[in-house]
């Protein structure tokens, strides 16, 4: 969780520090926010100081208003402009298409989730000191939501999608690539694990590609989208057990509230008549031995 009431460097302050930001010899993407006229002014200042790209993080403004802001900013600078959306947008495909039509060069997501609240049980007070004690949630808890949002964006637009939200390791990153992300972003993991997490994740991605026989990320980018049907299905899907993977740990039996899975002789067995098809066991199986039909 991060504090609800936070402040950032002004565009003037950051522009003065741009030289330091560029010492890493990597593109500098600057996130900025304000009123429309203020954002146009900031965009010009940041571009002039050396920013390579600009990113506008949004909550849930009216799409028409956002499109006008994008057009205003897009017309003021000649460096790439991206829009980072939040998870609270009801119709992400419509929103993403509108952002693309307005002239954004890429779309990114997701922002943090909230407001949220945590309580100090010793004092009864909120843990964070912001207004009402509210904060915003980031990290692994938001990854499943972020992944769904990224998939919806990738299916809706032709511009690049930068995906993120809860990426902690190479496997997380691979999921976002498979959901259609052009590239990925992460922040919380670097805070909690240190800057070495970046090289670790890059190494894990390379190892995955080699182990699974892929030549590059292009081979996996968006491969999951074809399985995400837009038509609802009411057909019940029951899990199949891969016997060569099942280790008989019993997690599936313990967590199945329908008593449809039992472990016999070290192997999970599914009673398809009792199974409700909820899929919980598939998401919990540590050996990945369960797959839905």
Summarize the helices and strands and which ones pair or pack.
Blueprint: E1 2-3, H1 11-21, E2 29-31, H2 36-49, E3 53-57, H3 63-76, E4 81-85, H4 92-102, E5 106-109, E6 113-116, E7 135-137, H5 143-156, E8 161-164, H6 170-178, E9 183-185, H7 188-193, H8 197-212, E10 239-241, H9 251-255, E11 261-264, E12 267-270, H10 280-284, E13 290-292
Parallel strand pairs: 2-3, 3-4, 4-5, 5-8, 8-9
Antiparallel strand pairs: 1-7, 6-7, 10-13, 11-12
Describe this structure in words.
The protein has 293 residues and is an alpha/beta fold. It has 2 domains: 2-16 and 23-227, TIM Barrel; 239-292, Alpha-Beta Plaits (2-Layer Sandwich). It is built from 10 helices and 13 strands. The protein has a 6-stranded parallel beta sheet, covered by helices on one side. The protein has a 3-stranded antiparallel beta sheet with strand order 1-7-6, with no helix packed on it. Strand 4 (81-85), helix 4 (92-102) and strand 5 (106-109) form a beta-alpha-beta unit. Helix 4 (92-102) crosses helix 5. The longest helix has 16 residues, at 197-212. The radius of gyration is 22 Å and the shape is globular. 29% of the residues are buried. The mean pLDDT is 94.
Please name the defining characteristics of this protein.
TIM Barrel, 6-stranded parallel β-sheet, 10 helices, 13 strands
* Main beta-sheet strand count, sense and barrel state: 6 strands, parallel
- Give the total of beta strands: 13
Topology as a string of helices (H) and strands (E): EHEHEHEHEEEHEHEHHEHEEHE
Question: What is the quaternary state of this protein?
Answer: single chain
CATH class membership of the largest domain? Alpha Beta
């Amino acid at each position: 969780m991060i504090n609800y009431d936070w402040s950032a460097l002004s565009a003037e302050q950051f522009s003065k520090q741009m030289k330091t930001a560029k010492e890493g010899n990597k593109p500098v993407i600057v996130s900025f926010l304000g009123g429309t006229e203020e954002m146009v002014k900031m965009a010009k200042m940041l571009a002039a100081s050396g920013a390579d790209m600009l990113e506008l993080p949004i909550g849930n403004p009216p799409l028409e208003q956002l499109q006008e802001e994008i057009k205003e900013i897009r017309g003021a600078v000649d460096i790439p402009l991206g829009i980072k959306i939040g998870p609270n947008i009801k119709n992400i495909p419509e929103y993403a298409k509108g952002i693309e039509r307005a002239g954004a060069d890429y779309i990114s997501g997701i922002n943090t989730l909230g407001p949220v609240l945590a309580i100090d049980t010793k004092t009864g007070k909120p843990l964070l000191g912001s207004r009402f004690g509210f904060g915003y949630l980031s990290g692994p808890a938001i990854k499943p939501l972020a992944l769904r949002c990224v998939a919806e964006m990738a299916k809706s637009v032709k511009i690049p999608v930068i995906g993120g939200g809860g990426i902690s390791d190479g496997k997380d990153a691979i999921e976002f690539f498979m959901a259609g992300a052009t590239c990925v972003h992460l922040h919380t993991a670097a805070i909690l694990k240190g800057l070495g997490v970046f090289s670790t994740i890059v190494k894990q991605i390379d190892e995955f590609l080699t182990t699974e026989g892929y030549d590059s990320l292009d081979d996996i980018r968006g491969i999951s989208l074809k399985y995400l049907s837009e038509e609802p299905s009411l057909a019940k899907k029951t899990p199949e057990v891969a016997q060569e993977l099942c280790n008989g740990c019993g997690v599936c039996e313990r967590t199945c509230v329908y008593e449809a899975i039992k472990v016999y002789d070290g192997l999970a067995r599914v009673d398809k008549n009792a199974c409700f098809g909820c899929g919980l066991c598939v998401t919990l199986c540590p050996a990945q031995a369960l797959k839905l039909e």
